[in-house]
Amino acid sequence: MRAEALVFAVAGTLFGLIVGWMLGSQQARSAGPAPAPTAQVAQAPPPASGATQAARVDPARLQELRTLAEQNPTDPAPRVQLGNMLFDAEQYTDAITWYESALALNPKDPDVSTDLGVAYYYTNQPDRAISQFELSLANDPKHTKTLLNLGIVKAFGKQDLTAAAQAWQQVVALAPDSPEGQAAKKALEGLQGAHPAVGSPPPSGGQ
Questions:
Q1: How far apart are CA 59 and CA 75, in angstroms?
Q2: Which of 15, 46, 69, 200 reaches 20 to 30 Å from 157, CA-CA?
Q3: Could you please report the per-residue DSSP string of 15-83?
Q4: What CATH number does domain 4-199 carry, 1.10.10.10, 1.10.443.10, 2.40.240.20, 1.25.40.10?
C-alpha cells in the first residue's frame, strides 16, 4: 500500500508540528471561530507521501497497465498498480479513479481502501477519507495503518483530538512494537504534552 510511507513521516519531525499546530489551534479558538476544515487541511501537515519529490510517471508503463486493465476487466491488480503509480506521482485525482475501480472488483481489500482514503484526504476531502477508513476497518478492525491514518485525519482534518487519540491508542494496543505502534505512541506523547487529558493512555485493564 502506498500509505506505508506515512507511518515513517509521522514518526519523525511531524510530531513537533502536531504540538505546535494544536497549540496554535487552541489560541485561535480562544480568539474566535475556528477556520473551516478545508483551510485547516491546507495548513496542517497532510498524511504525507514520504518523498520530497513526486515520482515521475513512465508513460510506457502507464499505457501498459491501462491496456492490461482494459483487457482484464475483472482483475483489480492492474488498477491497483495504476493507482499506486499515480499516487506516487501526486496525481491524486487520477489515483482515486483507479483505486475506486479496483475496489469495485475487490471491495474488501483494506490496503487499497486505506490508500483511497489517504488520496481523498490529499484532495481536501477529510469526510470521505474518514468514511473510507471506516469501510477498511469494517473489513479488518485491526488494520493498524488504517487506524493510524484515521487518527491523523481526525486530528488535522476534523480537529477532533479526542477521536484521534482513541484511534492511536488502538494502534498501540494492537501492535505496540510495530512502526505504526511507535508512530502512534509519539503522536500520543505529543497530544499529552499539549493536552494531558486528551493524550493520556486509557487505564490499564479498561476498555
A1: 21
A2: 200
A3: HHHHHHHHHHHHHHHHHSPPPPHHHHHHHS--S--S-SSPPPP-HHHHHHHHHHHHH-TT--HHHHHHH
A4: 1.25.40.10
Question: What Rg value do the Cα atoms of the chain yield, rounded?
Answer: 18
Please name which of 196, 175, 193 lies closest in space to residue 184, comparing C-alpha atoms: 175
Report DSSP state, residue 12: T
Q: CA dist 152 to 14, 82, 140, Å?
A: 11, 25, 19
d(Cα 74, Cα 52) in Å, to the nearest integer?
Answer: 35
Quote the pTM value: 0.75
- Assess contact for 98 and 78: CB atoms under 8 A: no
Question: Between 110-122 and 77-88, two packed helices, what is the crossing angle to 10 degrees?
Answer: 30
| Amino acid at residue number 181 | G
Amino acid at 51: A
Q: At what angle do helices 14-31 and 179-194 cross, to 10 degrees?
A: 30
